[in-house]
User: Fold this.
Amino acid sequence: MGWRARIRAGLAGAVLLPVVGCSVGAAQVVRGIYNTPESVTESVSGKRWDQRKREWVQDNLVDDAVHLTHMDDEDMFGPPPPYLAPCTALQAALRRTAACVD
Assistant:
């Protein structure tokens, strides 16, 4: 690749990169303007945006609390990985000791 080709590539990049950047920025501004009314409406109604589900969700803390009181750590998070087996044995021993103290 000769020096003229490198100069042309540099000039093309100097022109195209700002144009693409401005286009992407403008698209994001338009998306924000389009989504703002729904965002305000849903926020005022007490919903929150769930980033993982990518949707508006209504939280019910009373139902969550009732559901969680019937669960232990293994129900919530699954069984512990094998490398934590010594920690699990220690926790069980500490629970037995605490039960004896109570």
Residues 3-101 form one domain. The chain has one domain: 3-101. Strands lie at 48-50, 55-57.
